[in-house]
Structure formats: structure tokens, C-alpha cells
Amino acid sequence: MEKIKTIMLKTFKWIGIFILSILFLMFIIPILFPGTIAEQVKIFANKRLAGKLDYKKTHLTFFRHFPSLTVSVDEVLLLGSKPFQQDTLLSAKEVAAGINLKNLIFDGEVKIDEIYVTDAYANVFVNSKGQANYNVYVPTPSDTPKDTTSKGASIKLDLIKFRNWHIRYDDHSAKILVDAKGLNYTGKGGLSEDIFDLNTDLNIDKLDFSLDRIYYAKQKSLHADLITRINTHALTFVLRKNELRINNLPLKFTGFVSILKDGYDIDIKAASKKTTIRDMISVLPPQYLDWANDTKLEGNSDLFFSLKGTFSEPRNRKPDFKAFLLVKNGTISSGKAPVPMTNLNVDLNIDLPSLDLEQMTLDLKTLNFDLGKKDKFRAVIKTKGLSEMNVNANVNGTVDLQILDKALGLKQVDMTGLMTANIHANGTFSMDKKLFPKTDGFINLKDGWLKTTYYPNPIKNINLTANINNADSTFAGLGVKIAPFQFDFEGNPVFITADLQNFEDLLYKVRAEGVLNVGNIYQVFARKGVDVSGIITADLSLNGRESYATTGQYDKLDNRGTLILKNIKATTSYLPKSFFLKEGNFEFENEKMWFRKFYATYGKSDFSLDGYLLNTINYFIERKGTLHGNFDLHSKYILVDEFMALKNGDNEDKSLELEYAKAENPKSSGVVIVPENLDVSLHATATKVNFKGLDIDQLNGTAAIKDGQVYLDSTSFNIIGSRMEIAARYQNESPITANFDVAYKVQDFDVQRAYKEIDMVRELATSAKSVSGIVSLDYKLKGDFDENMNPIYPSLEGGGVINLRDVAVKNIKMLSVIGDNVGSDAFNNPDMKGVNIETHIKDNLIHIDKFTFKVFILRPSISGTASINGLLNIIVRIGLPPAGLIGIPVAVTGTSEQPKIRFFTRKGQEILQAVYNRKVNTVVREEKRATRKSQKEQRKEIKEQKKEAEKAQKQVDKDVKKT
User: Fold this and answer.
1) How distant, in Å, are the alpha carbons of 195, 544, 679 from that of 499?
2) Is the pLDDT of residue 170 over 60?
3) What is the CA angle 624-630-635, rounded to 5?
4) Could you report the per-residue pLDDT of 299-328, keeping only the tens digit for each?
5) Model pTM score
6) Does residue 326 contact residue 301 with C-beta atoms inside 8 Å?
7) In this predicted structure, what is the pLDDT of residue 150?
8) Least-confidence region, from 252-266, 375-389, 642-656
9) Of 105, 462, 512, 575, which residue is least crowded by CB atoms under 10 Å?
């Protein structure tokens, strides 16, 4: 026993010493090596990262991710790659790298084999041009020989752990948004081996996924247990074990992905077999999940989809997609249902060869359900193609809406009424070829009643009888009758009948009358966009044929009646704010819709219109109609800045193009977008117009909007105390670019006031700050606007004449320097009264035609070139008495602020023009000073510079085609 006791004591002693030694090493190693590790990791990061990296502290410890020795970096911030250098790519509370202890102790090398990232936000962004913010890793050049002697940091990963991540992937070029919150990821395997199995455990608390602004997943939980074999030589990923669960729906994946030089090969199959309807419904949007929890759901379902083939943009190849959904013997019933929905069966197949919607086949073989013994609904629909679609459909059923409401347990809607539908269609639908399937059918709703939780009063007495018939498979044979559609809302009856025949040359007969509170009706359906107080009163009778208006047979039309709108608030997809129509009285008279009384506001701007729109009936009928009209427009105040597309406003119904432009240019105002479906003439008067801080008073003139462009003709207004006449054209190219042409004349304006109040005067005529007095201007310009609706100066082209009628010119530096050299103070105050200066602008250069003025008894003349940014290449000839027949040439170079003077020479120093690409509104090269060489050398250099500029522009054009 003594021996055993002694042995045990010695054993515990050595175990204690061993544990203490381990603990001692765990404390001492971080003290011995911190400088080495921190320095090498920093060197590694600086060599390999193109984005700016910032952090607060570094730690070397065993205890943060025990038992691994980790170098931890706190409060990490990594910014994106160009052009997103100021935007966050990754922020994290902690980024830790596990260090290989053997290499550290015996070799003094930092080998990273584990990565830990905690409480992180990853913001991955790709803009509309395809530029990404994540290209921050700088790879080692392949032709650089490996340095086998250096002892830097290297990565050989066996473990990756992410904890509590928020990942946002926003790809504007592909219109994809993925937003994952509460992401936890563990990846294990020999990640640095050529071929290895990656074991993945992934959990996401809330996952959103949308494509083209349509959400296919919203706040879904996801769990993934994956084993993926990765071959880094062939860049192939084989899915060996891949089990996903989206909410309660299990999915199993098999297949592989191989990365090619110009794309990838893919063969993926996913299935969720022998699941339940309840599991299937769990992937619906979150607002439906409470309904599912309170509703009895029974039945089986199967889901399958596959993606197989090659994706290659250069070869124009895309994989095939197939999917099917099967629901059998489903039952849906709430606790209050008198009878359940039974025999719910769905059999849906989708086939999409080459991801081409024009080849898509949608085959709904079965959609059946019963409501008790009497009400049965059956639908079979098969379509193939899109723009030219083959259709075979049969829909037949009778549904008591009250029983359906109770069976489904709808909480936000109460409805009653008997709906019957019987529709048969077989044939081809094509808008271009004006084909329509042979169709015979009707929809009938009797004694309908609808109330939602969004509004206290119901829509009552809803009755609808609609018949559709087509016997010859053409638009000409198509007929639709609505006789009638009527309902009561808040004590006001609404009655509509319509008889529409021959959709190739539509013969219409429509009658509508009633009063509708549009704002309240929108509240019933929980829709935004129209103000709650909006009222529409209609008493219309429309009779005619589409061709009567287009061929001028107006006497055959019988369109009459009135439409009154009051207090309507509405938005458009291309303006940031809402229009508020205080009152609009419209009268229909055959081909015209008269604006008898129209007053609207938009932000601080106000408008009243008097005139007509032509052919409004056809505008609503045609697929791509254009509204024609003629109006008198009056306004007390127009603030142009409010119409710039990216300005902040209350409009939430913006186009996707505008949303992306705003996200990519958050500090920009954008340009004014002109609708393309208008052909309208206006005689406009406005008391005051303000544009970017510039006041324009008493505007009067003619305007036209046509083909997405605005034209001004014979328009005049007061500006800086003078009357300006203007003719102009404006067209937006995108939400952030536009082009313009303008010709303007202004008589007798104050130079100093123009210099102080107009930005373009300061930019194009910098010497105006030394001029005071009265000047007249006759000028033409064309060019582009940038994302803040400022002119892009290298884009400007044009020219004109400036008349210095009664001016005083003092202390222009170029003339002052000449005066200092010739000993004449008179150059500081030359006589330029009555002088005409003709200039031409192109490629950011102002070319000055020769003009002559007086300096005491001298007759100087000036010609040459100046850049908008201040570079000078001017020739001054100082004409000597008598009459300036003999002159001294002076070359002026340098800049307008620091001119350089050379006497007795006509050789200045040429300025190479800027190069501007109009396709992408980009300055390829700014103007610059040519090196001082012989004329032959200068000509050669100019030729080479032009070749370089053309090459750069071709590269920009090539990049544009790619995007």
C-alpha cells in the first residue's frame, strides 16, 4: 500500500508539473513572440490586401479559442477595392488566426491553419457596371519565383469558424439580393490540399433572397450539413452529402460544379420528398406563417428541381432548369370552417431549356379542390413559350367565397358571394402577330361582399358578369363583354359596362358612372401611392373604333362625359416626390380629353394646365401608346431641383433603375428624367423658376416634350437683371447622365453679377473677375450633364461672340505681366469698349479668335488657346504706332494665375486636348501641357498622343460592351 501511495503521489506530482508547464508555456509563449507574429501578420496583410485595413488592438493568447494559440485582431475594418475605397467590405469585433505552434517554436515561422471571425458584417456589392468591392486580395504573380528562404506568414487552413455574421450580397448587375443575419459557419478539412473534403455546418437565423425585386425567401431560417469534395486543380466541387432545411422544409442536393475558363459546368439535383403540406408552406413569407400555425394542414408533397449544363457567356450557353411540385390529398381547414377544403391536388411541371423564357414549358396538370359536396374547382393549364405562347387551358368551378374564406381561415379578409368560372382556351397568343387562342368562357360573381381589417367599411353588392369569346384564333375575332360590373362603397354606387370587339382594330362601347373615394378603396387593399382623401367622379360614355381616331375620322367617334378628380396624390416611377392634384376637371369630346380645370403641386412647385390630350382612348388600348396634346401651362414657382431623379422624397414606388442609381450614387441628385410616352406642346409662363440656386424670372415661351426629349423655342426670361432669349434641347440618358444643346442671347448684362451668380461663367470665363461693366452674349453650346446635373466641361462643344459694350478691365495678370516688362501701367487698365471676342470650345479648350484693343497708343491683339482649367497658350501682338502696323510678338504660357511671358516669339507651348467618351460620359484623359520640343517633335508627339487617346477610348468602348 505504501508503494502504491508513493507511485500515486509521484504520478500526480508529474501530472501537476506537466499541467503547470503547459499553463506556463501558454502564458510565456505569447510574451516571447508577440512582436514577431503581429509584425508578420501586418506585413502579410499589407502585401496581399488592396483595400484599406484598420483595427484597434492585437492579442496573442491561448484562451480566446482554447486550446489554439491565436493572434486576435479587435475592431477590424476592411474597406473595399476600387471604386469603393470608402465603403465597408468587412467589419468584425474580432478576427483571429490560429497559429501552428510547432512552426512557431522551432522554425520561427507563422503558419496560419485556423481562422475565427466573430460578430461580423460583410457588405458585398456589385454595381450596375459589374464592378465589385471585394477584389481586395492581391495574388502573387505567377511568373515570380518562390522565395524559399523568407520567413513570412503563410496560410494552410484546416478550420474556419464564423460566429454571428450578417452578410449582405447586393448584385445590381444580376439584380440579386441576399441578406443573411445570424449566420454561423464551421468549415473543416484540409483546405490547403489539392483535393480535400470540406465538412460544413451552416446555420442562418434569417435569410432573404430576391431576384429582380421579387422575394423568393423572406426571413427564412436555414440549416445546412454539407460534405463537399473540392479538387483545386480541376476547380471541381462534388456534392457528396448536402442536406438543407429551409424553415421546416428539408432539401437534399447531389451533383457537381466545375469551373471553366469561360464559365462553369453544373449538374445539380435537389429534392424534398415525402414531406407534408405544412412543411412546404413553412417557406412562404413570414406574414403567412401565423395563419399556417392556426390552420389544420394535412396532405403530402414532393418538390424537385435540377440545373444541368454549361454556363458560358462567350459561347452563349446556359444550363437547363427543370422542376416539379406534387401535392396529394391535401386538406385545409380552420376551426370556424363549416366545411374544409379537401381533395387539394397539385401537379406542376416547369421545363426551362437554356434558362430561356421563350422556350419555357409550364404544365399545370392538376389543380383541384373541393368545398363540401357542391363546390368544386378544377384547372388544367399548359403553356409553352413567352412572346409567342402556345396555350391549352381549362378552368371550371363554382366557389362560395364565404365558405372558402372560412375554410382557409383568412384573418384579414371577410368575403361572401358566389363565383362561377368556366373558361376553355386552345391556341397561340402573340402580341406581335396579333394571335389569340380560341377561347370560350365566362366569370360570374353574384352578391359579392368584401371587407378587410385595413378599413372599417366593406365593398357591397359586388356583381360581375364577364364573357370572353374567340372563334378564329386572331385578335380580330376576340370579344370581351362586361355586363355589368357594379358595386357600392360608402353609399356611392359604381356602375361599369363594356363591350369590346375586334382587338386588332378595337371597337369599344363603355359606360361608367359613379363616385369613388380612391384613397379609401386603396386602404381596403392596404395599398400605398394614392392619398386617403382622393375622390373620382365619373359620368362617361365612350363609343368608337380605334382606327377612327388614328385616321382622323373623328365624326364617327361618340366619346363624351366628364371625369372629376379632387385631392389625388399619385407618384411615378421616375420622380422622387408625389404629385398632388388638387382639382382636375376633364371633359371627353370625341378624340380629345379637355383639361377644363387642372391645378396640381409637386413639392414647392405648382402647375395649372388648360388644353387637351389627343387620342387618350387609344393610349390606354395600345401596348406602346403615346399621349399627344397641346396646353397652356402657368406656374407661380418651379423648383427644377425637386425633379432630379435621385433627390430625397416621399415616393417609395421607384423603378429598380432609380433604386440602383441612388444606392450607387448616394450623394448625387441625378438628372431630370423625361417620360418617353409623351408628345405634348406647351405654351409656358412662369413667374419664377429656380435651378441649382439660380433665379429665373418671368419665363415665357414655347416648349415641347417628344420622344423623351424637351425642346424650348422662342423662350425668354429675366436672369441677373437682363432678358435672355434661348432655344434648347434636353434628353436624359440614364438617372445620372443627360445631354443638351443650347443657343442663347443676352443683351447688356452686368459682368460682375454674372461672375458671382453663375457657376459656368466662373468656369469658362475666369478673367471675368477682372472685368466690370456691361456685356452682351450670343453663344451656342452642346454637351453632357453629370450625376449632379452639372455640365461636364470636357464634353462641351460650341462657340459664339462676346461683345464688351461698356466695360472696365483691370489687373488681368497676363496683361499686367506684359505691362511690367514693357514699362507701361496702361496694360493694367486697357480700353476694350466695343470689342467683340469670338471663341470656340472643344475638348476642354477655349480657342480665341484674334481680336484687337487699345492700350494708350498701342494696339495689342490676342489669339490662341486656353484650357478651362487655366492653362495658357496665347499669342499677343503689341502693335506699335502708327496704327499698329509694326508689332512685337509675345508668347504667353503657364497658367492664368501664373502666366509666363516670352517676347519676340510666336512659338508658345501647345496644350494637348482632353479626350472624352460620350458613350459612357467619361473623361478618358484630361488636357495637359505638351513638352517643349521642336515643331517636328511636337507634331510627332501629338500624333502619338492621339493614338494613345484613341486606344484608351477603344478600351472604354470594349468595357462598355462587356457590361
Assistant:
1) 70, 11, 29
2) yes
3) 115
4) 899 999 899 999 887 788 889 999 999 999
5) 0.80
6) yes
7) 42
8) 252-266
9) 105
DSSP run (H or E) holding 811: none
Q: Cβ(909)–Cβ(942) under 8 Å?
A: no
The arithmetic mean of pLDDT across residues 43-54, rounded, is: 70
440 forms beta bridges with: 424, 469
Q: Is 517 helix (H, G, I), strand (E, B) or coil?
A: strand
CA 716/CA 261 separation, integer angstroms: 61
Distance CA 362, CA 350 (A): 5
- Cα–Cα distances in Å, from 574 out to 355, 571, 942? 30, 9, 44
Task: Flag whether pLDDT at 825 surpasses 60.
Answer: yes
Q: Report CA-CA distances (Å) from 609 to 54, 130, 597, 825.
A: 58, 44, 7, 60
**Which cell is 6 given?**
508513493
C-alpha cell read off for 732: 436624359
In the numeric block, the cell 487552413 is attached to: 157
105, 111, 115, 120 alpha-carbon torsion, rounded to 10°: 100
In this structure, which amino acid lies at residue 502? N
Q: List, in sequence order, every beta strand (DSSP E) within 590-672.
A: 592-602, 605-614, 627-639
Q: Would you state the pLDDT for residue 851? A: 94
DSSP string spanning 353-413? GGG-GGG-EEEEEEEEEEETTTEEEEEEEEEE-SSEEEEEEEEEEEEEHHHHHHHHT-SSE
* DSSP 8-state code for residue 432: T
Length reported for the chain: 963
Domain ranges for the chain: 50-135+154-233, 261-404, 938-962
Please determine, for residue 359, whether its predicted confidence score (pLDDT) is greater than 90. yes
**Nearest to 135, CA basis, from 51, 235, 15, 225:** 51
Q: Tell me the angle at which helices 2-32 and 34-48 cross, rounded to the nearest 10 degrees.
A: 50
Contact between 71 and 100 (Cβ < 8 Å): no
Phi/psi at 212 (nearest 5 deg)? 55, 45
pLDDT for position 315: 83
In this prediction, what percent of the chain has a pLDDT beyond 90?
44
Count Cβ atoms below 10 Å from residue 247 Cβ, excluding itself: 19
Classify 285 in phi/psi space as left (phi over 0), alpha (psi -120 to 50) or beta.
beta
Task: For residue 624, name the pLDDT band (cuts at 50, 70, 90).
Answer: low
Q: Is the pLDDT of residue 229 over 70?
A: yes
CA 5 to chain CA centroid, nearest Å: 80
Neighbours of 572 (CB within 10 A): 15
Mean pLDDT of the chain: 84
134 with 178: CB under 8 angstroms? Answer: no
In the three-class reduction of DSSP (H, G, I as helix; E, B as strand; rest coil), residue 67 is classed as: coil
Distance (Å, rounded) from C-alpha 739 to C-alpha 921?
10
Residue 287 pLDDT class (50, 70, 90 cuts): low
3-state secondary structure of 636: strand
Pairing, β 110-126 against β 153-171: parallel
Which residue in the block uniquely carries the three cell numbers 485595413? 53
pLDDT for 46 equals 62
The CA-based angle 480-484-485, given to 5 degrees, is 95
Q: Determine the residue type at 39.
A: E
- 279: helix, coil or strand? helix
Task: Quote the percentage of the chain above a pLDDT of 70.
Answer: 85
pLDDT at residue 3 is higher than 50: yes
Asked if the bond preceding 576 is cis, omega within 30° of 0, the reply is: no
Query: Which grid cell is 486?
Result: 357594379
Cβ atoms 749, 756 nearer than 8 A: no
Does residue 277 surpass a pLDDT of 50?
Answer: yes
CA distance 562 to 593: 9
Separation CA 244–CA 221 (nearest Å)? 10
For 828-852, give the DSSP string. Answer: GS-B-TTEEEEEEEETTEEEEEEEE
Residue 592 has pLDDT above 50, yes or no: yes
How many CA within 13 A on the CB side of residue 666? 5
